[in-house]
Amino acid sequence: MQRAWNVNEGLRRFSSAVFHPVGWVLGRVFSPNFITTLSIGAAAVAGYLFAVGQFVVGPWILFLAGLFDIWDGQVAKLTGRVSTFGSFYDSTADRVADFFFSLGTLYYFADQKIYDITFMVAAYMVLSSLISYVKARAEGLGVACNVGLLARPLRLLLFALPLFIFGLSDNVWVFRISLYIVLVLAVETLVHRMVVIYTGAREKDASAAADGS
How many other CB atoms are there within 10 angstroms of residue 47's CB atom? Predict the structure, then answer.
């Protein structure tokens, strides 16, 4: 599991390193929360482009949304503007962004009557929300829960790249296969996180009982 997690962490670190100069420039002009807002806006544009079948341009806009999601954290650290609200807003923005681009994709394939992909995108939306909810609840309980194969960087890559290939070739099978992979990884991530929470919660309960005895 640790090796798989490094794939996601590696994607994030690579993007951060390559695009760090841009983040530094943005930090001299914009606040971290404004950059977070830009990530929502870019994801909304990507969702619209997906809905109207623009799969060559749309994935690049989604990629930009992912970069904004990296840059807001970079800017916050570089400028010393890390805040509790900023962390909350960033997490919420990720969920809103996921909803926008997923909904646009769902609309397109439903309109094209490609129902198996429509169903899989809908399942992805549900599982993605559950994964994020479970992590948030775990953190609220004081249980670390950064586990699972399908962290957000890999999720965006497996979504955007096959759609771009579909836009170039009109071959939907690449995206279909990618969705199979995404759903399997999503289920693994959800189950893995629930197991971690169950174990962590039992340890906390046992510790509390020992302290009270």
Answer: 25
Supply 195's token pair. 């197991």
Phi, psi of 52 (to 5 degrees): -100, 10
Please name each of the domains of the chain with its CATH number: 2-208 (1.20.120.1760)
Count of CB atoms situated within 10 Å of the CB of 126: 11
pLDDT score at 12: 61
CA dist., res. 71 & res. 151, Å (int): 17
Whether the CA torsion 147, 122, 66, 73 is positive or negative: it is negative
Q: Which amino acid is at 183?
A: L
Residue 177 has pLDDT above 50, yes or no: yes
- Residue pair 130/190 in contact (Cβ under 8 Å)? The answer is yes
Q: How far apart are alpha carbons 114 and 119 in whole angstroms?
A: 9
Helices (H) and strands (E) in the chain, counts: 8, 0
Q: What's the predicted TM-score (pTM) here?
A: 0.85
Angle value at C-alpha 189, between 183 and 192, nearest 5 degrees: 140
Structure tokens at 154: 């890999």
pLDDT at residue 111 in the model: 97
**Cα–Cα distance for residue pair 125/161, rounded to 1 Å:** 18
In angstroms, the CA 125 to CA 58 distance is 18
Are 201 and 169 spatial neighbours (Cβ–Cβ below 8 Å)? no
